[in-house]
Amino acid sequence: MNPATALATVLVDELLRCGMTDAVLAPGSRSAPLALALHAADQAGRVRLHVRIDERSASFLGLGLAKRSGRPVALVCTSGTASANFHPAVIEAHESGVPLIVLTADRPPELRQTGANQTIDQVKLYGTAARWSTEIGVPENRPGMVAYWRSLVSRAWGLAQAPVPGPVHLNAAFREPLIPDGDETWCEPLDGDATGAWTKVRAATPGSVLHVPPTRRGVLVVGDGAVNVKRYVAAASMAGWPVLAEPNGNARYGDHALSSHHFLLGLPEFVEPHRPEVVVTLGKPGLSRPLLSLLRRAEEHIVLAPDLAHWPDPVRSATQVAQDVEIPVVSGDDAWLKSWRAADQAATAAVDAVLDAVPEVSEPRLARDLVSALPGGSLLFTAASMPIRDLDQVMRPRRGIRIMANRGASGIDGLVSSAMGAALAHSGRSYALLGDLAFLHDQNGLILGPEDRRPDLAIVVVNNQGGGIFSLLPQAALPGPFERVFGTPQQVDLEAVAAAHRIPYRRLDAAADLPKVIAGEGLRIVEARTDRDANAVLHAEMRKAAHRAVRELLSAH
């Protein structure tokens, strides 16, 4: 099956699974895959297809259908000015709150701005009149496309209705061939969810609560930006679920919180017998690839989203999205939780042994010990790259601190200033854990006017003289260009930087000296020098030790 046919087949099928009953088509060449998929669905009695030769008339026909039925109607046209002729109806739908799914066919990127026939700029063509607008991207014959396409349609269907009904725009780029080629094979099944939409969006109505099916084999995942954390952690505990919390989710506390889920979920021997029946996600997870793999394999993945116009679903696995979720209390055998906790304890002990065996300063041990050493009521602001990942892998559960990071876009910029701003707003002691490049990227954040307030903030800088995270990525296998274009070595004297800004400076030379070195008040800088190559070796040793310990535990049972 060619990619154009596969994409169109899935888009139409998912719209039907979401509940679409009517579609309006204006004919054209580039939209042929969608036209043929709609015609097939019409012949099978799955949809009422309406065809009009003029796009303006077609779009207003769809507007009338949707306005009277209250259900989204799909509008389909070819590329070029055909899509522009939908614009008046899209504006009317926006102003009057009518749900429409506008599907515009488009040329692939290589034909745009080249003078190719019937090609205009269709990206976000309808501007602010569309509730949501996205480029689907040229379809490719590779695994993962079906989940992407179906979750995209489910999101569009939900956004067309909630929180305020209106039009959404999906721009679909098709490469030739545009008609079926007689080959029905594809790299993965094109099928959707037999029970309906790929992702079911619970309507935002007062008192609307999604009740999770009672099960002991559940998992609560907490990522960045999570809300109502205490409520859901308590509910998960009552249900006997383990809590897999990223540090900045601020839910890694209590008996159900795990420390080493990153290592556990990277071990197939553990993952297979510990596949949850349901996963509930708060916030936006994204620090650990093994954790994302767990979400991808979940039988039921429920996403709690306070704003139904946006919800995090990085691996396109969400089956339901709701603003309020009820996790029921389940009594009975607690073997599920005990098994997770026993494996976590074994992995954590193994990782601790590796870290404690090295008296010199290491990045993961610094992260672990810093969290343990912070006084109650402290704030810890971390860089969004390696420091937050070190915390994710080695931070032990504890109460009484708040961890923050700029993980919205996960950028390197402005972290010194962000940490200062957070410290100025915080009522207790404040600390920051930054890499050298993140620190240097925002040196200007250290410039304070003589009459400006100075935060009580200890900035701990891990100085490995470059981009440490790249030593843990595949780029490290390229010894020729690696150091210059990925390692990006620097030789800035951080003590001189501190002196230039008249900020107190201390250096951490031994891991055991951390509590003494970070002590003090006011704005101050602590430098911890490490080696990138040694750090990569240490991370490999941590993973091996954790996996060895868990394998031994599993074999003993």
Automatic annotation (TrEMBL):
Enzyme Commission number: 2.2.1.9
CDD domains recorded: TPP_PYR_MenD (cd07037), TPP_SHCHC_synthase (cd02009)
InterPro entries for this protein: MenaQ_synth_MenD, THDP-binding, Thiamin_PyroP_enz_TPP-bd_dom, TPP_enzyme_TPP-bd
Residue stretches spanning the membrane: none
Domain Thiamine pyrophosphate enzyme N-terminal TPP-binding: 7-124
Span of domain Thiamine pyrophosphate enzyme TPP-binding: 397-518
Biochemical pathway: Quinol/quinone metabolism; menaquinone biosynthesis; Quinol/quinone metabolism; 1,4-dihydroxy-2-naphthoate biosynthesis; 1,4-dihydroxy-2-naphthoate from chorismate: step 2/7
Catalysed reaction equations from the record: isochorismate + 2-oxoglutarate + H(+) = 5-enolpyruvoyl-6-hydroxy-2-succinyl-cyclohex-3-ene-1-carboxylate + CO2
Signal sequence, start to end: none
Function, in words: Catalyzes the thiamine diphosphate-dependent decarboxylation of 2-oxoglutarate and the subsequent addition of the resulting succinic semialdehyde-thiamine pyrophosphate anion to isochorismate to yield 2-succinyl-5-enolpyruvyl-6-hydroxy-3-cyclohexene-1-carboxylate (SEPHCHC).
Family the entry assigns: Belongs to the TPP enzyme family. MenD subfamily.
Subunit organization: Homodimer.
Official protein name in the record: 2-succinyl-5-enolpyruvyl-6-hydroxy-3-cyclohexene-1-carboxylate synthase
The species this protein was found in: Actinomadura yumaensis
Gene that encodes the chain: menD
